[in-house]
Structure formats: C-alpha cells, structure tokens
Design a protein that fits this description.
101 residues; alpha+beta; 4-stranded mixed beta sheet; 5 helices; 4 strands; globular; cytoplasm
Length: 101
C-alpha cells in the first residue's frame, strides 16, 4: 500500500491500469481529451502488480483498475470518474494539472 501512496503523491494525476482493460483506456482517453496527460501505471507490467491490486482494493476501489488519483487523493474507478465528468466537477479538479506532463 505504501508504494501506491508514494506514486499517488508524486504524480499529479495517476491511473493505475492494466494494458488489456478497455475501461482503463476509456478513462485515459477522457483525460487526454480534457487536456491532461496522466501518468499511467500498468500493474500487469509491474512485478509487484498483484500486491498493488490488493492495496487498491483495500483503499476502497470497487475494482482494482482503473484506479484514479488526483493530487494524491483516490477519486475511484470508472463510475466515479464519469460521474464527476458528467456533473462538470472533473474538469475543475484537473485544472491545476492541465499544463503539466
């Protein structure tokens, strides 16, 4: 869990993802369309991926991926990200990170 927290605090916007996950890709593309280039950590390419997956579930993600953090804070998975987007508050939360890569 410490590694997840460390990565989340070091990166402005991070998506914990799996390379074969279509919902992960969708969330990533949504951020790109908004003008955000999130850091994407593919847990299926990480030797500690299973431990990261367990940590994300313990932190409250309803599915291990996608798990989105903004400013070190867990936002959630696809449902939470899309709800924020549809309400208009996702863009507001991402504003500080718009020009960062």
């Amino acid at each position: 869990m410490e590694r997840v927290k460390k990565l989340a605090s070091e990166k402005g916007v991070i998506i914990f993802s799996k390379s074969t996950c279509c919902l992960c890709y969708t969330v990533h593309m949504l951020f790109r369309e908004i003008g955000i280039d999130p850091y994407v950590h593919e847990i299926d390419h990480d030797p500690e991926g299973k431990e990261i997956e367990k940590a994300l579930l313990r932190m409250g993600c309803n599915g291990p991926v996608p798990a989105v953090f903004i400013g070190g804070e867990l936002v959630g998975s696809t449902n939470e990200v899309m709800s924020l987007h549809l309400s208009g508050s996702l863009v507001q939360r991402l504003k500080p990170y718009k020009n960062l890569s």
